[in-house]
Amino acid sequence: METAYLSFNQITSDNCSLEEVAEACVKEGVPYIAPWRHKVQDIGVKKSAQIIRDSGLKVSSLCRGGMFPAATHVERQVRIDDNRRAIDEAAELGTDVLVLVCGPSPDRDIQGARAMVEAGIEALIPYAEEANVRLGIEPLHPVFAGDRSVISTLGQANDIVERFASPQVGVVIDVYHVWWDPNLYQEIKRSQGHILGFHVNDWIKVTDPLTSRGMMGDGVIEIRRIREAVEAAGYKGPVEVEILNDKLWQHPCQETLKRIKERFLEYV
Amino acid sequence: METAYLSFNQITSDNCSLEEVAEACVKEGVPYIAPWRHKVQDIGVKKSAQIIRDSGLKVSSLCRGGMFPAATHVERQVRIDDNRRAIDEAAELGTDVLVLVCGPSPDRDIQGARAMVEAGIEALIPYAEEANVRLGIEPLHPVFAGDRSVISTLGQANDIVERFASPQVGVVIDVYHVWWDPNLYQEIKRSQGHILGFHVNDWIKVTDPLTSRGMMGDGVIEIRRIREAVEAAGYKGPVEVEILNDKLWQHPCQETLKRIKERFLEYV
Fold first, then answer.
1. Which residue, of A251, B123, B185, B213, is most buried by count of CB atoms within 10 Å of its CB?
2. Is B114 near chain A, with CB under 8 Å?
3. Each residue's pLDDT tens digit, B89-145
4. Where are the domains of chain A?
5. What is the crossing angle of helices B18-28 and B45-55, to 10°?
6. Yes or no: is domain B3-267 CATH 3.20.20.150?
7. Which chain B residue is nearest to residue A182, measuring alpha carbons?
8. Cβ proximity of A182 and A165 under 8 Å
9. Residue ranges of B 67-106 with Cβ closer than 8 A to chain A
């Protein structure tokens, strides 16, 4: 795919600051960036927004809100409040997409936790509407069902979107999380009109599932086929490269970006 | 659950020989055992069958056949032949259930690999019928979709079973592989009449997904709820405890069995 759609998700160079990442994107002619909240908070939202404005980069999304389920009502409310701050930060950083990683269950009741996710999203809709920020439910690979998200399939995410039928709620599709799904292509079709983001990387031999994502082309995912299906479902926005890989974090971000551009052209 | 249904899956004490495991089962009053082919082959099928017969243990299943997809027709045929040997071994060891771990794709075409799985199972049915051995399709957690099985959900396994509509083909349900599935309970219902085995263990914080399964009660799976659903779908057979865990492999099998019996009563 042409790099005009390329967005550099900041976690791919988690070893670098927002300033370094923005500079590398400008040098490499990458038009979009996707910041993460922990990096933004390192230097503050105001300064982060300034860096991005000065760089002329567009922001494809902010990672991440979510983490809704919790053992008590009070704690769930604390999470909602934090999501409201995330919505404000997204708006201030110049994006209208907040990615939601929905969170694990506080106990063994996974269905109960799924209900808490829906209640959390519902509670955020009016605030998101006012801020003109959309909530992108990102289903996470089932390997993360115990510690990161009880929303494990695009089908579940689509169910939630359809239930609320709000322009504020959509899905974010990451090939790493969905490639294995026997219902993938029908669920991508069903996402038509509410795809808020698309992430690429690859599935290589997993050691730690969190930090062993692959560079596009190194693994087993049919990335181009999935990208074309996402496009056919009407998505014309930026494509984020998001690779959590501890080996990659030993390289300067500009070097990483150069490799990404090559692979993006060849495999996405 | 009462330990009258307990089957000790041999991989749980992969550090011990079949003879040691069988002896520990007898001492602990565990009625069933589930051998693995690599351990059986260490000492030969004949001797393995003798050990099991002498112990008086019943055999709940043999692990494992499968691994159908391959790049060439010749290699796929080699796999079929190996599965025929596995069927013979199951019969000789005194069980009518061969567990199928269906295999990964030889390339990026996961749908093509799924078709190869179906073709492989279809090719085995007449042989299995003659040997009076049933083929239990075990869906594997999607974390293994790249290196162990392209059959990732109970829904897929049920689809295959329904397509062949042969008494020789059914499913094996392992809580580790299916607990995260939003369609789990409806798919368990759909398995009614063709559940050939049920495996328990737990999902703990995953480091290496292959060797960090948990002891029942240590993780997040609603084991009893799933067991009751499997029973409600008509399964009345043995319940295999199958825990692949490298820490557990440092303990003598009798010690492991004692812990398992306690946990089985409390959590299964």
1. B213
2. yes
3. 999 999 999 999 999 999 999 999 999 999 999 999 999 999 999 999 999 999 999
4. 3-267
5. 10
6. yes
7. B156
8. no
9. 104-105
